[in-house]
Specification:
InterPro entries: Ala_racemase_N, PLP-binding_barrel, PyrdxlP_homeostasis. This protein is of the alpha/beta class and about 240 residues long. The protein has 9 helices and 8 strands.
Length: about 240
C-alpha cells in the first residue's frame, strides 16, 4: 500500500468511527448515513485511491476542476455530486458527469439543468440548497434559497423533464440566527424536509454536515454528510 493510500485509509477509518458513534448516539443505524468525500483541489489519483478503499460518493464544487477529473475517473463505479454554486453557463458541462446537483437554488437554474439533462439523455438528481441565513425566499450569502422559497422551487424541479427531486441540502450558516449553532440549523432543515416530503415522499435525501459538524448533522437526521478535510487532509491552495 502506498503512503498516500495508507494515509487515506487511516483518515477514512477515523471518519467512519465518528459517523458510527454519532449514529449510535442518535439511535440510528449506520447504513442510514452515506459518506460523500469532497475531493475538490485534490487530484484524480486521490479519487482512484478512494475508490479502491470503497468510497462510492464523491463531490466537487468547481466545474473547471471537476469535469476533467470526472473524465479521468470515468471507469470507476462512482456517484458524482456537484455541491458548488452553479452558473447557468456551466450547466451543460456539469450535467454531463454529475449524478446529483446539490446546489439548486433558483428557477432559472432548474430550467437550464432540465434542458441540459434532456439534451444529454440523462436523469439528474437535484437537491434544493436551503439558505438558513435568510428568512424569506431570498438567496443566502453562500447560495441557497430561503425556507419560504423551497416549496415553489421543489414544484419546479418535480415538473421539470430530466430532473429528479431527491431532497434538500444546507451549509451551516456563518451569519443570522443559526450562526455558530449547526445543530439548530440542521434541526430546522429537517423540519423543512418533513414538510417537503408530504408533497414529495421520495425527496427524502438530506445533505448536511461537514468535517467539523458531521456529528450534529447525524444527530439531527441527515442522510448524507459531505466530508473533505477529515479524509483528504488540509487543502492546498486552489490551483
Amino acid at each position: 500500500m502506498t503512503d498516500r493510500k495508507a494515509e487515506l485509509a487511516a483518515n477514512l477509518a477515523r471518519v467512519e468511527e465518528r459517523i458510527s458513534a454519532a449514529c449510535a448516539g442518535a439511535g440510528r443505524k449506520r447504513e442510514e448515513v452515506t459518506l460523500i468525500v469532497v475531493t475538490k483541489t485534490y487530484p484524480a489519483s486521490d479519487v482512484r485511491l478512494l475508490a479502491e478503499l470503497g468510497v462510492r460518493h464523491v463531490a466537487e464544487n468547481r466545474d473547471q476542476e471537476a469535469a476533467p477529473k470526472a473524465a479521468e475517473c470515468a471507469d470507476l463505479p462512482l456517484i458524482w455530486h456537484f455541491v458548488g454554486q452553479l452558473q447557468t453557463n456551466k450547466v451543460r458541462s456539469v450535467s454531463s458527469y454529475a449524478d446529483v446537483v446539490q446546489s439548486v437554488d433558483r428557477k432559472r437554474l432548474v430550467d437550464a439543468l432540465s434542458r441540459a439533462a434532456v439534451g444529454a439523455g440523462r436523469e439528474l438528481g437535484v437537491l434544493i440548497q436551503v439558505a438558513l441565513d435568510v428568512d424569506s425566499s431570498d438567496r443566502g450569502e453562500r447560495g441557497g434559497v430561503g425556507p419560504d422559497g423551497v416549496e415553489r422551487l421543489a414544484e419546479s424541479v418535480a415538473e421539470a423533464e430530466g430532473l429528479r427531486l431527491d431532497g434538500l441540502m444546507t451549509v451551516a450558516p456563518l451569519a443570522g440566527p443559526y450562526e455558530g449553532r449547526p445543530r439548530a440549523a440542521f434541526d430546522r432543515l429537517m423540519e423543512i424536509s418533513s414538510r417537503l416530503r408530504v408533497a414529495h415522499p421520495a425527496a427524502n435525501m438530506v445533505s448536511a454536515g461537514m468535517s467539523s459538524d458531521l456529528e450534529e448533522a447525524v444527530a439531527a437526521g441527515a442522510t448524507h454528510v459531505r466530508v473533505g478535510t477529515a479524509v483528504l487532509g488540509v487543502r492546498p491552495g486552489l490551483r
